[in-house]
């Protein structure tokens, strides 16, 4: 079936061009991972990352960057500054009336918000780039080798320029993929970063088994946990809470009204992969500005190391917060209720207007709470099991959630193209679509 779908993709010129463009842009991104920032010793950094920071906060940062940090790439900051800037703008929209007005202006307002998000990205890149340069100057290998050959202000300024340019290029790359390719560009960049680490992870598994650093039964248990997590993600992401809606339609000849039944589908996890991505971005960000407050990078890493109680508590709180925040920012219940009313529809037993809005808000709040707990469990439980079994590699639920979620979004978009052009999509016989759209 997969081979038939692939053939159908290349039969549609527009879809074929979008897929090829997306793959080419992701290929450019992966090539850029190996473009090293001037003035640094990449081999020493790789040694330090593997011995000192594997499984730490910087290890997590390196994973989301697809190995850019250990390669000291111009993409070392990754796309996280752009995501952090988006978080700030989204939060400001709640308290700054002007930004809230921009959100209601449609395309023009979106352009203004995007422009200010880019300004924020530049500022964050400058701050994080400078802190990254200072951090690299302080690093030494096991044998006393230095990462930075010639530390000083010239190196710091050059590093800030290179890292800022790298992140801005990734931001542009993501926007190009969103506009001219398939899927969300920023999500796909993170997706490519995580997937690129899979071969090394499998290689490390074999190495640790051979050297006795990991027992076979521990690996079996971990694989079972990953498979269960994968199945749970696919099941929940495809689930809906359907609110029944009835539409009154008068017959053509002026006879009695006819009642047509429909429903309003609400996703269990309306926010998708945004909460864990935002939460990870906020947890990583303080480490790069810690020196402003006299806190050493190592101290902050120890406090926020993945698997630690403070990391888990903060991560849990941020996931739940962003699950609610992003859901109610994206899903305008007032607009939905107004559209239902304009089309002559109503929810049985609920009056149109404010009661309909309150009812939708109540249902959405309940399922969002369940979705937030699901996100927290998926993102945290595999990590907790991994730390309990002391497995010497990083592969957590957050990574699986992002990979599966982004893959389902892409499959949904591709299937829409195939169905619109009368081709068979990801379907199983007459039972309908295998991959359901994750958009409300």
Distance between the termini: 27 Å
Biggest sheet strand line-up = 2-1-3
Work out the strand percent: 5-15%
Order of helices and strands: HHHHHHHHHHHEEHHHHEHH
Overview features:
three-stranded antiparallel sheet; 440 residues; single chain; disordered C terminus; mainly alpha; Preprotein translocase SecY subunit; globular; 3 strands
Outline the structure in words.
It is a single chain. By secondary structure, this protein is mostly helical. A three-stranded antiparallel beta sheet has the order 2-1-3. It has a single domain, classed as SecY subunit domain (Preprotein translocase SecY subunit, Orthogonal Bundle), CATH 1.10.3370.10. The longest helix has 35 residues. The protein starts with a helix and ends in a 20-residue tail after the last helix. The radius of gyration is 24 Å and the shape is globular.
Condensed summary:
The protein is mostly helical.
């Amino acid at each position: 079936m997969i081979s038939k779908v692939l053939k159908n993709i290349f039969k549609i010129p527009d879809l074929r061009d979008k897929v090829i463009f997306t793959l080419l842009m992701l290929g450019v991104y992966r090539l850029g991972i190996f473009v090293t920032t001037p003035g640094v010793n990449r081999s020493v950094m790789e040694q330090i990352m593997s011995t000192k920071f594997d499984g730490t906060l910087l290890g997590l940062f390196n994973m989301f960057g697809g190995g850019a940090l250990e390669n000291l790439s111009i993409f070392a900051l990754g796309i996280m500054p752009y995501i952090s800037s988006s978080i700030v703008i989204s939060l400001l929209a709640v308290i700054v009336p002007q930004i809230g007005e921009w959100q209601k202006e449609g395309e023009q307002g979106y352009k203004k918000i995007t422009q200010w998000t880019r300004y924020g990205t530049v500022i964050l890149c400058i701050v994080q780039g400078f802190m990254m340069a200072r951090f690299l100057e302080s690093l030494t290998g096991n044998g006393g080798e230095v990462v930075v050959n010639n530390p000083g202000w010239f190196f710091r300024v050059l590093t800030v320029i290179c890292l800022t340019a790298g992140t801005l290029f990734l931001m542009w790359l993501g926007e190009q993929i969103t506009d001219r390719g398939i899927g969300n560009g920023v999500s796909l960049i993170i997706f490519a970063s995580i997937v690129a680490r899979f071969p090394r992870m499998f290689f490390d598994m074999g190495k640790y088994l051979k050297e006795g650093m990991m027992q076979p039964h521990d690996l079996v248990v971990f694989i079972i946990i990953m498979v269960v997590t994968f199945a749970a993600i696919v099941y929940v992401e495809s689930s809906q809470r359907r609110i029944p809606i009835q539409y009154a339609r008068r017959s053509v000849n002026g006879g009695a009204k006819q009642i047509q039944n429909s429903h309003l589908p609400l996703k269990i996890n309306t926010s998708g992969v945004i909460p864990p991505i935002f939460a990870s971005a906020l947890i990583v960000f303080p480490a790069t500005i810690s020196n402003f407050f006299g806190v050493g990078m190592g101290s902050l890493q120890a406090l926020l190391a993945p698997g630690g109680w403070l990391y888990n508590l903060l991560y849990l709180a941020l996931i739940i917060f962003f699950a609610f925040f992003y859901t109610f920012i994206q899903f305008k219940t007032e607009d939905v209720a107004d559209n239902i009313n304009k089309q002559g529809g109503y929810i049985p037993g609920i009056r149109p207007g404010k009661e309909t809005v309150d009812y939708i808000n109540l249902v959405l709040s309940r399922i969002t709470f369940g979705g937030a707990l699901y996100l927290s469990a998926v993102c945290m439980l595999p990590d907790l099991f991994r730390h309990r079994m002391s497995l010497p590699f990083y592969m957590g639920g957050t990574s699986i959630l992002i990979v599966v979620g982004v893959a389902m979004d892409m499959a949904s978009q591709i299937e829409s193209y195939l169905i619109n052009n009368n081709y068979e999509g990801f379907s199983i016989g007459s039972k309908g679509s295998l991959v359901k759209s994750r958009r409300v």
